[in-house]
Amino acid sequence: MTYSGFRVIREALRGDLGWGPAWRDADPKDHYDVVIVGGGGHGLATAHYLASRYGVTNVAVIEKGWIGGGNVGRNTTIIRSNYLLDGNEPFYEMSLKLWEGLEQDINYNAMVSQRGIINLIHSDAQRDAFIRRGNAMILNGADAELLDEAAMRREYPWLNYEDARFPIKGGLAQRRGGTVRHDAVAWGYARAADRRGVDIIQNCEVTGFRTKNGNCLGVDTSRGFIGAGKVGVAVAGNSSRVMALAGMRLPIESHVLQAFVTEGLKPILPGVITFGAGHFYVSQSDKGGLVFGGDIDGYNSYAQRGNLPVVEDVCEGGMAIMPMIGRARLLRMWGGIMDMSMDGSPIIDRTHIDGLYLNAGWCYGGFKATPASGLAFAHLLATNAPHDTAKAYRLNRFETGHMIDEKGMGNQPNLH
């Protein structure tokens, strides 16, 4: 079934009796060319691009829960490519370009909204740093615009410009950034992969990897053994636990990241705003709720809930730049498990076990990377060679000293 405006009108006139399931609830076969562990955004995107770009359709995506139940449905939906380092900026710019054509590619309304993102500037030194970042973005083909205080006042007159501690002196804008509906990304990629023959297997937990003479033969699951020519693991915050089943210890810590949504409000926030003197980011959903978040919780955890000190810190950041947020009622909050790498940048690479591949270490920026991550991982699985934009994301870079330290924090995952 192809979705279109004509189809919507037709089904409305027929009482919506012609809609079918978005994807099949497949049963596992004995063997696949590729098995992808993890039915989140990255795993589903990988399956889609394997089938659509590389012609590999004998693929299974296995998910221990349900599609959309992990981090892909537990984030603040922001997309952007405003990075500094050469190892990151080309990759995230490719991702943003894939976002721009995603809905046509997968024939699904993912609600891609390029409403723009602005990083606020609060000091002269920060302006210098953002000028450098903006120039790096432009050199890599992205868009960047430096705004002075007057321009900020015209676009966002209700921000707190008079705060003596955190004065707003301007901002770095990327007009092509914005937001995407997170659930729709999971559903859209799942549907697109299924249409090309990929089996999506839910409620199927990996319990082990079968290896022989250094080769991965497949995975043991709660629904039996599934053989595979290649196995790709993309399980976000559970990366360390899953790869431990293969005897691997990863340079990753798991932390909780909380996010919040307020009650529905009248339109006030046209784009995405990030606080430059702390960690707070906010946008407004189509339903009117303010969607915001901040830093990860500072302790290791696999729980999908957070603690109150971080709630307080996030609220302080929001109040510092827009005091009116204090009048909004909080509707709900949730936590996602982040796979924090040692340098804050991801890993897309082969492992020392032939036929076993890893996609991990996305920290709290994995959602915006979903299309590029899927394409790069699909390229690696199909060709055994890294994608041109992901050559720096090697697993051994921590051993060789080729870290991609975007924030300049060193090897402290909780600070990235």
Cα end-to-end separation: 43 Å
How many H/I helices? 11
Strand content: 25-35%
- Backbone structural class: alpha/beta
Give me the Rg, rounded: 21 Å
Given as residue ranges, the uncertain stretches (5+ residues, pLDDT < 50) are: none
Q: How many DSSP-defined strands?
A: 18
Helix content: 25-40%
Arithmetic mean pLDDT: 95
H/E element order: HEHEEHHEHEHEEHEEEEHEEEEHEEEHH
Shape field? globular
Largest sheet: 8 strands, mixed
Q: Would you kindly provide a written description of the structure presented here, covering whatever features stand out?
A:
- The structure is a single chain.
- The protein has helices at residues 5-13, 41-54, 89-100, 102-106, 124-139, 149-155, 182-195, 239-244, 308-321, 370-383, 397-400, and strands at 31-37, 59-62, 78-79, 117-121, 145-148, 170-174, 178-179, 199-201, 206-212, 215-221, 224-233, 252-264, 272-274, 281-284, 289-300, 330-341, 347-350, 356-360.
- The strands form three sheets. Strands 1, 2, 8, 9, 10, 11, 17 and 18 form an eight-stranded mixed β-sheet that branches. Strands 5-6-4-13-14-15-12-16 form an eight-stranded mixed β-sheet.
- The chain is built from eleven helices and 18 strands.
- By secondary structure, the chain is α/β, with parallel strands linked by helices.
- The protein is globular and about 65 Å long.
